[in-house]
Amino acid sequence: MLQSRLERIKSPMLHKVMTSFGPIDDLFKQPLPEWTKEFPSPINDYGLEVTAKLMLDSVILGDQHLLITEWTNQFKGNFVVPITTVINKSPNINFSLVVVNSEDHYKLGTLHVKKSTAYSGILFSNHFLSTTDLDEWRTQRRHFIDGVMPMTVLQHFIPIINQTSQELIEKIHKGENSTFFYVSEPSPAYNMHELIADTAFIILLRTLFGEEDQFIFQNSRRVRWALQHPEPGNKLSKAILDQWTSSIIQRGQARKQSQTNQNTGNDTSCPVRGRLLNRVLETEQVFQTSIGTSPEVALHDNIAILSLAGQDTTATTMTFLLMELAKNKSYQDKVRKEIDELAESLQGRQIQYTDLPKLRFLTQCINETLRLWSAVPYGTFRELQFNEKVTTPLHNGLVSIPKQTSLVLHNYSLHRKQDLWGENSDKFIPERWNDGIFIDEWTGEEDKMSFNFSNEEIGCPFSGRNPQSLRFHPFTRGPRDCFGKNFAQLEIRLVIFNLLREFEFRLASPTISKLKKKGDQISFMSAGILKPRDGMWLHAYKRQAVNKTKPSVSTTLKSAL
Predict the structure, then answer these.
(1) Strand segments (E) across 321-371
(2) How far is 287 from 291, CA to CA, in rounded Å?
(3) Which residues 6+ apart lie within 8 Å of 560 measured at CB?
(4) Number of C-beta neighbours around residue 540 at 10 A
(5) Please, are residues 72 and 61 in contact by the beta-carbon 8 Å criterion?
(6) What are phi and psi for residue 82, nearest 5 degrees?
(7) How far apart are alpha carbons 113 and 13 in whole angstroms?
(8) pLDDT tens across 176-189, in order?
(9) Other Cβ atoms closer than 10 A to 206
(10) Is the pLDDT of residue 402 over 50?
(11) 3-state SS class at 145
């Protein structure tokens, strides 16, 4: 695999990208910081220039999560990589420690919440999720969090999410985004990733932004395209996002003013739809930065990042979950049985927030999807706020690294490490999460590094709690964890609940061919988020129309998958 990468970096395209950053003549001549000599690094094998090109090439082609995983398996511990950043139109090499020791990962991610400069240089990078100003991050997050609280806001979105899920079901019935292939079955195959991504975008805009349907439908595809291309110099993407954020701001301010005018006397009601956007529109009122970003730019970038992060990561997780359930018919049947039992117990009433913890096996499947297909594979980029001691695999001891060192708290590689998850770490096995406790397959004992989703502990699996342990951190490390984790947990359950009540899903071409070749190659990273390469193609059979005597694609693929 690495040999093919060494051939790839000879491409003229990579040289063109690098020279577009600015002068690079002296970029690879700088000495390595002293602390880096205490850790293994591909720089020792290939030199600084080749390693930096390997890293950048993997970003361009979307497989950096696989490259980091290769090196994780090679070095067996924390290691150093060069990350090319562009600050003030000047390229720079940022020597970063990739943290793959689980104890270091937990400690550094919890104590050091300052983001590194690795986010600099891309479009819409001056937002509250990536700001390096900790006071600004805390101020904005505290102000915005009111818009995504589980019981006061999110539970009121259930009818909207259900309605949007039913619209997705109707699109599938009508054959939207479907085609026929001549490999798997004589039935239409659906690009479920595009259908689900569009659904997640609609849900975000209807709920957290409070937008109207006509405006959403007119903008969904072009805005989602632009959000996937935040690279510097992409004029079309920048133009689309500038127009998008300006429209969102203008329309949001107009609605907010209208709501204010309608409130009279002692009416202090606060609309739930669009509450997050209303808080974000107050960015300028709470903005007190010390890093040179204007309030106007921060508002623009906050809108842009929420437009991306508020739907793309959730859509990816739902897509890979459906893929795994299509691969494993017994798991899909078990989830559907659980869903049917819950639906019957509702006796015709709409599902409520407090019903969702009853979907225990679905929660296990979601956990396993979050582990195996980390929506944000690189995890997070942090910067040491003070000197630290971390482990090095070179001599199995602790070494000091200085303040301001850049960290990569990787998700994808840790979630697949065999020493943390066993020899079957690359397999989808929801039973790992049996009632929230992983049973060690070798000893039969409970794994204390797992967390327990007991009702006594937290009430429900996503009531404001960040699921994390030494080895599991799908929403990164708190306290600077995923802002929208509770919204995502709610949306995933409701959309899957509705889909599996209506359809049985089976793998279709070309997804089958990709999974036969090598499963992890089906994924690639775009705009920092994992996605299925070339879509996710599935057959969707209306449940009562499924011929139970018909041979299942999953059965024919058992040996390959």
Answers:
(1) none
(2) 11
(3) 515, 516
(4) 24
(5) no
(6) -95, 130
(7) 36
(8) 888 877 665 678 99
(9) 20
(10) yes
(11) helix
